Request: fold
Amino acid sequence: MSSQQARALYERLKREAEAAGYFLNPDDDFVLDLMEGLLTNEERYGYQACPCRLAEGLRANDLDIICPCDYRDPDLDEYGACYCALYVSEEIALGHRQVEPVPERRGAERETAADEHAEELVGFTRGAIPIWRCKVCGYLCARPQPPLKCPVCKADKDRFERFA
Reply:
């Protein structure tokens, strides 16, 4: 991986984050190291798995940890940063707060929360058209198939789950 590739990925993610109302960690060296990890995982597995977690190497098994991961928003809400601290709250981005360790959410906790959320959404249908939810940011849309990219967080089509 070249530092030029890492810099290009950083600039792209920063633009996308800002357009969606998110902030990247203000420590450029730290973020560039994460970009190297994302690029290494993309070369290794064919997708950008979080560099702070162990990927299995099977996209279907790692969907929840493809950047931006499914845990980003809950981690930001509760801790002000995601697990790897790539995404941070505005307070941290502005230097008013420090990044703190974020516990791992991956596992049974996530499945329980998803089941509870699915129960809340029962009844949200538009005729025979299915409802699709982006597992990364929660974006909902009613259409025959999920979008190729989430218009909010830019997650791929396979990061959507069907409701109703």
In short: Helices lie at 3-19, 28-45, 59-62, 72-79, 90-93, 108-121. Residues 17 and 53 are 21 Å apart (CA to CA).
